[in-house]
Amino acid sequence: MTQIEESVLVDVPLAVAYEQWRKVEEFPLFMRGVVSIERRGRELTHWVVGVAGAHREFDARTTEVVPDERVAWAAVAGEVRQAGVVTFHRLGAERTRIMLQLDVEPQGLLERVGEALGFLDRQVIDDLHDFKDFVESAHEGPPTAPPGAAPGGPRVA
Hints:
- Strand 3 (about 45-50) and strand 4 (about 55-65) form a beta hairpin.
- The chain has helices at about 15-20, 110-115, 120-140; strands at about 1-10, 35-40, 45-50, 55-65, 70-80, 80-90, 95-105.
- The protein has three helices and seven strands.
- Strands 1-7-6-5-4-3-2 form a seven-stranded antiparallel β-sheet, with helices on one face.
């Protein structure tokens, strides 16, 4: 199992960062490996992701929500095994630290090789920094896709 911890500073109020994170359907706009997310209830989402050149699907359940503080989740069915928590820390009126902890169990040879080479860590770090760019741009004005995003649609790894 791979454990990834990363944080990023975003120049938006905590409530703005938290509310944007809760809009999981928009993750494909800035997360390179996420193809689509569909809500299937208040706590359940269905994910389609690109992993090591292959599509994987899984369901995730939100396991904890503390408004403006933390969101935790775990995969409950499908081809991906992961669990995580994201926390939000107010650093000022217009600055927030977002901390992400993610546990992922790579499936298959290509995913294990990618994990060994640090590709999974790099993707998570890039996605978190792309979230920063996305939420800061949305807070300043009309949302724009981060560099590398496919015009008019989500990016696929």
